[in-house]
Design brief:
Cathepsin D, subunit A, domain 1, 2 domains, 5 helices
């Protein structure tokens, strides 16, 4: 058992002792004492189980509530974001770029986060006016893009400042979160149809 579980067990036993003392101090039948004691044992048992598995319970609750409100593809558990794989095999996420809602595809094969020109303009992205564009190789051929900076991006509970981005009209409506975002996280992984994103901590920043 973990240290927290041991503390919870000691607390529960102490509480049960107090309840038992109170029951025996009253002049009631043995049958009622047993029923009451069993009820308190069940209550404290549920408390210990709930506390021990609080993260799992929160994950289930978040998923159920997500199904009810229609945002079931991403679930927040504490400071961790879980993203369910879409029917197209990709991982999509709703983010806020400078407080503007933007739908992103998460692509670990993309080096840099990329945004469509009109989406970047709507989010007031600081786009470079350099006459020398960046040439990118895409599935549809080479694309000339401008460099920019996302002043603030929030994906679920995860927040970053001053994230480099490339912007091009040729991206159409496509917006992609790349490795320059993922690499700044504490960790990220894909398992059992979910992508799990965890924030950086002082130890891994």
């Amino acid at each position: 058992m973990t240290e927290d579980q041991n503390i919870n067990l000691v607390f529960a036993i102490g509480a049960l002792v107090l309840v038992a003392s109170a029951l025996f101090s009253r002049r009631i039948g043995l049958g009622e004492i047993v029923r009451t004691a069993l009820a308190w044992v069940a209550i404290f048992g549920l408390f210990i189980v709930g506390f021990s598995y609080k993260q799992e319970i929160l994950a289930v609750w978040s998923r159920v509530s997500g199904e009810l409100n229609g945002s079931h593809d991403q679930v927040v558990v504490g400071e961790t974001l879980r993203i369910r794989q879409s029917a197209d095999g990709h991982f999509w996420v709703d983010a806020k770029v400078n407080a503007t809602p933007v739908r992103f595809l998460i692509d670990s094969g993309a080096t840099t986060t990329a945004m469509a020109l009109r989406t970047a303009q709507a989010a007031d992205i600081d786009i470079s006016s350099s006459p020398f564009p960046v040439v990118l190789s895409t599935a549809n051929g080479s694309v000339e893009a401008q460099r920019g900076v996302i002043q603030s991006i929030q994906v679920g509970p995860l927040k970053m400042q001053d994230l480099p981005v490339v912007v091009a009209e040729e991206f159409g409506d496509a917006n992609v979160i790349g490795m320059n975002f993922l690499s700044k996280l504490g960790s990220w992984r894909v398992a059992e149809g979910e992508m799990v994103l965890e924030p950086a901590t002082p130890d891994n920043q």
